[in-house]
């Protein structure tokens, strides 16, 4: 169905794999458009409660934008591409939790896509970086903003100004990835994390994601008000009734997503 993506579903978890291993899964325009289409389809698929995104092959998550496509671009045509609806922003506002399963090189637009996800986990073999400076450009998919918010200005500045890659262990120390797993266990451990989240109420997950995302985008007073509204909205759901009843009846809840 897609030229450059694979989509698998395992119970309530969808795995989206960028599938251009010969190009280290570099994001050309066609792939970014396919990601947008896939996100739209997965958003309305009620069976899917958590999304995992990864790269095909053993070497790379995503090695950045497809540099080949930069060659023919003018400033205006590149701006046109980058101001259309973007995979990075769509990933960030996708109403279900998204885990980036970083299985290798995670560079440039690849790191920016991972930064747009909710949780990042990495193989111990992964290398992460914003190498755009080596091409005479800067990150343009949100890297200067999302990386800085996540790890702080000093560390983000060093990564963006040197363009050097860091190891998974270094990324973990920075809080850039939540967990580092042995390469052979990456998928199993990631799916276990996804399964834990997929058991929760999809309504509450959506509200929780929106509330947490508000933190970086608003002042504290506005964020606290938004949190109260989203908290109260959960009380309109069947899932809240079920969650509370299951607790009182000392059983596991069965959340239906309404
Ligand atoms: N865009 C287009 N093609 C890319 C690419 C990218 N971002 N990253 C890798 N590729 C291609 C290579 O050109 C090569 O293709 P070829 O076999 O047709 O020549 C193939 O993927 C394998 O990459 P290669 O460079 O041979 O692997 P390596 O193990 O020697 O090096 C990297 C791996 C990640 C260090 C290196 O590929 C690299 O620096 N890539 C660019 C990263 C980057 O700057 N990204 C930010 C873009 S803004």
From TrEMBL:
It comes from the Bacteria. This is Short chain enoyl-CoA hydratase. Keywords: Lyase. One of its GO terms (molecular function) is hydro-lyase activity. One of its GO terms (biological process) is fatty acid beta-oxidation. Belongs to the enoyl-CoA hydratase/isomerase family. PROSITE patterns: ENOYL_COA_HYDRATASE. PANTHER family: ENOYL-COA HYDRATASE, MITOCHONDRIAL (PTHR11941:SF54), ENOYL-COA HYDRATASE-RELATED (PTHR11941). The keyword Translocase does not apply. It holds the Pfam family ECH_1. It comes from Chloracidobacterium thermophilum (strain B). Its EC number is 4.2.1.55. Coiled coil: none annotated.
